[in-house]
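Mods, move this if it's the wrong board.
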Amino acid sequence: MFVQVVQGKVSDANRMHEQLDKWMRDLAPQAEGWLGSTCGVTDDGTCVCFVRFDTPEHARQNSDRPEQGAWWEETSKLFPQGAEFLDSDQVTEDLPGDPTKAKFVQIMEGRATDPKRGYELSKENSDKWAEFRPDVLGTIGANLPDGRYAMEMFFTNEAEARKGEQKEAPPELKAQMDEMQALMADTPKFFDLKNPWMYGPR
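Not the wrong board. Structure tokens:
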């Protein structure tokens, strides 16, 4: 899988939603290899989109389409300070539930001192995590350049997610959490998408 994270402050969240709907209607049918996108705008006006393709080649083919260029030229005007693009083909996917049913999505971004070990840890104990946190419908993580990483987490709803955050993990999972936290080179950022826009191939 290939992931591209697009983010930046937007001037009009409703207009951004309209542009994404337009992409879904007019461009998605010809976007070969596109697997889906999760987008939304946080309370402070930051738009984050997690776009998934099956391969980097298909993602590049989509970016090179003239109609994609025209769509982005129009959409980019909604990012007065510009948008940041983060690409990764080192992706982990853990979907114990149906992420399309998520009512709350959280994007976490940070930097790891040992990305390879973090990548390995993210794939461990998926069955135990599903049992411990039934509010988590799935996660998709991506290793980015310079040790950075991004992860989208799909929750049943925000209330259950906040309740789940307060639960005390069993020893094995706590040890995994502690090692993950020890790998963090800085404090991670969290982007709460309280009204996520979920898109997928029809």
